[in-house]
User: Fold this.
Amino acid sequence: MESCETPIPMQPRRPLFRAVSALSVLGALLALQACSNSDDVITTAAQDTACAQVTDSGSVDVGSGLPGDPAAPEPASGFRSKKLVSAKTYMVVTANPYASKAGCEVLKKGGSAVDAAVAVQAVLGLVEPQSSGLGGGAFMLHYDAKTKKVQSYDGREMAPAAATDDYLRTISATNAAPPLPIPAGTAPESNAAFTPLKQSGRSVGTPGAVRMLELAHKDYGSLAWKDLFGSGVQLATDGFPISGRMADAIAGSRTLLFTDPEAAAYFLNADGSAKTLGTIIKNPAYAATLTALASSGANALYTGPIAENIVKKIKMTSGGSPSFAITPGLTELSDLAGYQAKRRDPVCTTYRSYWVCGMGAPSSGGMTVASALGTLENFYLAGYKPTAMDTNGGKPTVMGVHLISEAGRLAYADRNKYMADTDFIPLPGGSPAALLDKTYLRNRANLIDFTRSMGTAVAGTFTTAPLGISSAEGKGTTHMTIVDKNGNVLVMTTTIESGMGSYRMTNGFLLNNQLTDFSVLAADASGPIANRVQANKRPRSSMAPTLVFKMADDGSMGDFLMGTGSPGGATIIQYVIKTLVGVLDWGMDAQQATSMVDFGAANSATTNVGGEHPNVNATTPAGGLPGGSDPLVSGLRTLGHTVSVSSQSSGISTIVKATRNGATVLEGGADPRREGIVLGDTFKP
Assistant:
């Protein structure tokens, strides 16, 4: 019964804020009391607050401006503790309150998880433009509760048809200088990601997110495509306050935004200063783009005037203030018109008594997570669970972090050597099976020493042609996890690669710099690099949207248990692994596992321990190293780890299906390191 789902009545739409009178609140509470015996209310003590933030004093609507409004702009901070949220039948977790609200309203109307994802992405591209948008790409996993099928979707950006192996390294076959505006005398002699290369047109890949969403919507959409963009259009038209993370991104990229006058005009004030926290910002061009997408579908972006403007921005030959030369990209209208999103097979493997499904190539995320879990399966991790458990995940143990970090090193070693776009470079054995073989991973586990870190791991040996190594990846990404009323589940990680992408803007959105995820070099001393640039190739990613299922009695995939994922570039893999272990091995709820200290390692001597977390002492004692007074950090250093306590910037969004007091509920956790929230037909027991 819809009247039992909204304790605070909705007022007519207004820009940003809605006033709610005391009488209307009282009337809503009386209506809720009248419905207290309805089947729609999980318990008589529960307060149903569909698509509103639940607080100790009641519910608050996103954008209402009332005390506790989760959309109220606050300075970006390293960590802001959050509470576990419970819902009855549907839930959405994103990195921004407005996006969560847009998705939740779609679910409330009976929309599918894919419907909600379209609405969420439309809003995220506006309120979190530094992380994702229409000009970027995405990977998605979808679980169909009716057919029990997991389907993955590839919306990764592509190199243009004219790209060569040296596309990121030289201007042309006859000009060996690096693409401008790399400073004179500087050449990309390694696979490091150079900021100036982001300003080059060579950094921009053909966007894929919109085409992918349209493909998924054709498969699993419930509401009409044209009706999914209203929240984005309204916010773009009426305006919204700049959030803390967006404000920090603008300030941090201020000089680089002068690359494109259109980007500078939108993000900067007339005097060239960065627009600040709480500034109301409107984007009529973005509203027009969403309106075109609503009426004409994805073709509105891949053909016609918007596509022409995208190509013009990629082919810019100068920019900045004062002006500097830029090497244009070689993307043509035919690259956009010919782009295809792809349905791909997910990578599903067993882990203890669970099935874990992730994204396959061209993402390395699902395979690397599965590789690390397959290694960890050989250890009794439950014996190394965190101590002093609290809502933020307690204090990880030295041995727990050690084992997980070492397994990560081994998995990343294989990732860096073997994983790339399999449409171009096959995996060992032609599929993920060889890298994820249980016997192979047991042998890899035997390389882990309980008393000493291996520092840097060596990739496993397979009968393939010699390959080089590459590991670079940016961090301009976000994630959403969604469950709809019918039990369908969606996890989607979406990106423009680095913060603010290529600093180019057209039709209200930023263009990605995704091609810098390719290796700058085509080969090294060991041989050709799998992740080198090639025409129409998709750069390797670490995005790891993940679904977890219970194992049925016969060993097959059983009921849905968990969905999670995170932004964070190559560290996404670490964030997802620690979250999965938190729930599956250590019995944490969705918020505890999401909030837990971010820790892990790629294939280097450095082990990350997120110093932004309140359960980590990252201070530097006199004459010591950062975090030297923290027992976890000092314990890891005793084992030979080089520990970094730099702040981590995960954006984990997790939903776990749980049983509480005999009832099945959804429990959601939003990362306290970002601004996201959990919404649904939530209740407060």
Observations:
- The chain has 19 helices and 27 strands.
- The first helix runs from residue 22 to 34.
